[in-house]
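Bumping my old thread because nobody answered last time. Still need a sequence for this structure:
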């Protein structure tokens, strides 16, 4: 046996199964979407064995894309967990044969509890197909398993149908990347779309600031003490007028300039870049990368007022935004 040829055969069988299923998509799929959108409850996915594993993934995908959903194991359901189902819920029952005993045993209770039923099976004449409010055909011509025993193409088709439901619901709900981020606060996307400058900035005593008339030897102490490699230079009213970085100091000293007894106003760079505290931290990172700087002074709505914070590149990277 050539394992590469076998792998290609398996993938080919499954690809053909998906193509055939895509061509069968009809009004029943639309009815399933309408049923879920009209529900006042959650989507509850149930299945045994491999169908159960696929069902867990379908429920997880729906939950992360704006459709409240969870997985219910049918064997646990017949021993008390059916109490999780209530009127207004939609149950998606998955069974390749459509005759799985544990699935069929929970269906009468599902109906009595006032939930609607979407059946997903490879057998269009099964009992599951017969009692479902909406039936989705996930049948395949053959399994990729050469023995025709292990669920392969059939589970792939079922998973794809679940993804189709989740994505169609996402589109119908107008679900956006910002909404996705709310459900994924620990992921990179969530952090980029949720964390704001004010969540990461240094504030209060942690802001390195000196007055325009401060001697540079004192400003150097502030830069070192605050540990951000920069200090802002403010006028008498507290408004930011310039910045001095440790890089500025190093370059001046390398050129032999005697700067320690000069005033901060004589050394500072004018027109420092600023950012509002309400901006996304990812926006601050973009500015830093474009301008090759490592910190930004932060302001409330009025950027001409005194800074309310400072955000450093390391703070952003440490938060996992990159």
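Sorry it took so long. Here it is:
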């Amino acid at each position: 046996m050539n394992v590469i040829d076998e792998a290609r055969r398996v993938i080919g069988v499954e690809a053909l199964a998906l193509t055939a299923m895509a061509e069968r998509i009809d009004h029943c799929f639309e009815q399933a979407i309408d049923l879920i959108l009209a529900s006042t409850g959650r989507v509850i996915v149930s299945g045994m064995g491999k169908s159960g594993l696929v069902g867990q993934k379908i429920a997880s995908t729906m939950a992360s894309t704006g459709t409240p959903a969870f997985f219910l194991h049918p064997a646990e359901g017949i021993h008390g967990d059916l109490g999780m189902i209530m009127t207004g819920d939609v149950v998606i029952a998955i069974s390749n044969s459509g005759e799985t005993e544990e699935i069929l045993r929970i269906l009468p209770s599902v109906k009595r509890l006032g939930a609607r039923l979407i059946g997903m099976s490879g057998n269009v004449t099964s009992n599951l197909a017969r009692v479902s409010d909406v039936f989705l055909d996930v049948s395949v011509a053959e399994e990729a398993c050469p023995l025709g025993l292990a669920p392969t193409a059939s589970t792939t088709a079922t998973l794809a149908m679940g993804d189709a439901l989740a994505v169609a619901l996402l589109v119908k709900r107008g679900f956006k990347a910002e909404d996705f981020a709310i459900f994924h606060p620990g992921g990179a996307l969530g952090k980029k779309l949720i964390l704001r400058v004010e969540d990461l900035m240094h504030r209060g005593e942690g802001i390195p600031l000196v007055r325009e008339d401060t001697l540079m030897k004192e400003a150097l102490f502030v830069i070192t003490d605050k540990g951000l490699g920069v200090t802002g230079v403010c006028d008498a009213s507290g408004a930011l007028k310039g910045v001095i970085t440790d890089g500025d100091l190093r370059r001046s000293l390398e050129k032999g300039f005697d700067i320690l007894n000069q005033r901060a106003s004589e050394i500072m760079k004018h027109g420092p870049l600023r950012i509002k505290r309400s901006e996304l931290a990812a926006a601050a990172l973009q500015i830093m990368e474009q301008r090759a700087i490592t910190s930004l002074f932060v302001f409330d709505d009025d950027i001409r007022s005194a800074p309310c914070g400072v955000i450093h590149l390391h703070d952003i990277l440490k938060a996992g935004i990159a």
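The longest strand covers residues 116-121. Let me know if any region looks off to you.
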